[in-house]
Amino acid sequence: MKLRTDRGIGLRELSRMAEISPATLSAIENGQNSPTLATLHKLLKAISSDFATFFSTGENQADSPVFASSRMRTIEDEHRKYTFMFPQHGDMKFELVREVLSPSESEKESEWETHDHDIGCILLSGGPLRLQIESKGEWTVYEKDAFLIKEGLRHRAYVIGEKEAHLVTVIVPPRY
Q: How far are the Cα atoms of 3, 25, 42, 85 from residue 111, in angstroms, in the given order?
C-alpha cells in the first residue's frame, strides 16, 4: 500500500492499471492474500517499478566478475522461483535469471504475461513445458530446447510433465 500511496495512486486506479480486481489488490495490501509473481510483476510495472528495485538489498558487489550465489536475489511463489543472477548495474545490457517451475501449476492456474523486453530461455532439465503465445500458437518445450518470446507478446509457460522445470532466461534489455 505504501508504494501505491507514496505515488498518489488510488486502489481502483492501480487495479485498473495492473488489470487485477480491486478486491484482489485490497486483499494483497491487507496481507490477506499473497500475489503470484506474475501479479506482483503487473503491479510493479503499473507503478513504474520492477523486481530488482522492490527486492533490492542496497548491497553493491565490488568490481569482481564473479557473482556469489549467496548474494543473488531469489523470489518465489507457490509455483515459481526466480533467482536474479547478477546485481542491478546501469551498464548491464542483459539480465540473467534462473527459473524453477513446479509441475503443480496447471494450465488454468498459469497466468498470461506480457513484457516490454525480449526473453530467451533454455530448458536445462525437467519438464517438459507447454509454451503458449497468444495469436501465434503453442509448443511443447523439451530438455535442452530453447525458445524466444519477443516483447509485447502475451504468453505463458507451464510444466506439463511430472518434473520441475529448470530454465535459464536472458532478458534484453535488463528490466529486473
A: 23, 16, 11, 24
In the block, cell 525437467 appears at: 126
Q: How many domains, the chain?
A: 1
The answer to whether 15 touches 25, Cβ cutoff 8 Å, is yes
pLDDT value at position 26?
84
Instruction: Report the alpha-carbon distance of residue 158 to residue 105 in Å, rounded.
Output: 7
Residue range of the domain that includes 168: 72-172
**For residue 34, what is its C-alpha cell?**
499473497
Residue 65 domain-assigned? no
Q: Is residue 126 part of a domain?
A: yes
**Residue with more model confidence, 117 or 121:** 121
Question: What is the rounded average pLDDT of the residues 48-57?
Answer: 68
Output the domain CATH number for residue 142. 2.60.120.10
